[in-house]
Amino acid sequence: MTLTTVPCAGVPVAATTPARAAETLVAMAVRGEAADVHLCNAYTLALADRDRALRDLLRASALNLPDGQGVVWANRLAHRGSSLPRMRVYGPDLFLDVFREGRPADVRHYLLGSTPEVLDRLAAELRTRFPQARIVGIESPPFRELTDEERESQLVRIRASGAQIVWLGLGTPKQDHEAARLAAAHPAVYVAVGAAFDFISGNKPQAPLWMQHHGLEWLFRLCSEPRRLWRRVLWGHPRFIWAVCKGTRKGCR
């Protein structure tokens, strides 16, 4: 199942619905593909506009999905002649959709990221919602760069688990680099899913649906975590708009 992509801020982003995105990930997992999947919001694409290594990584990735409503709006504006979906592929919803859609195929999941406490709550929540879901690995890596030996040990654990989908909640852009690295080393679908671990576990509150649908989730998160996110918002949003305008003029180079 191949998804159509359109360029956004110089990065190819899939023009797809949430349902089809979930179906695609399950199909990739069942086929045993080696794939890095990235949930792209305005901040991700702003970083990619500044960081050539991240931009090249996203351009070479198996799949980039429009996680931010701003990305959806930018694509619809830049590609007015195309009929593009109006809804984003929101990371936490995709996470749950894939768990749901993957049950008939007995898809095996691995959770990588965050803290042991958040992972324990996340796994408990997932097992409550999806009692038959197969979670074959749970791992909270150190909050630093791994050594070569630690990277190899992590890869051995993922391989031994038989995981078909590895969910990475390591923060942007670290999780994107790790997804690409792991996909190149062992066949599985590696999804850089961002704050989904915190939201689904209940560790952090989610924005109300009306704010999400109107592209205001960033404001809710900024009010919830101002000290951590104010630089990201004040720098990221203008840089994203600039990158979109630049990309609209020049296209993906």
Structure description:
This protein has 253 residues and is of the alpha/beta class. It has a single domain, classed as Rossmann fold, CATH 3.40.50. Helix content is 54%, strand content 15%. It is built from 12 helices and 8 strands. The strands form 2 sheets. A 6-stranded parallel β-sheet has the order 4-3-8-7-5-6, with helices on both faces. A two-stranded antiparallel ribbon has the order 1-2. Helix 6 links the parallel strand 5 and strand 6. Helix 2 crosses helix 3 and helix 11 packs antiparallel against helix 12. The chain starts with a strand and ends with a helix. The model has no long low-confidence stretch (mean pLDDT 92).
User: How large, in whole angstroms, is the Cα Rg?
Assistant: 17 Å
Residue stretches low in confidence (pLDDT < 50, at least 5 long) are none
Strand order of the largest sheet: 4-3-8-7-5-6
Secondary-structure class = alpha/beta
The CATH architecture: 3-Layer(aba) Sandwich
Helices, by number, come to 12
Secondary-structure element order, N to C: EEHEHHEHHEHEHEHEHHHH
The total beta strand count reads 8
| Basic shape | globular
Which CATH top level class fits?
Answer: Alpha Beta
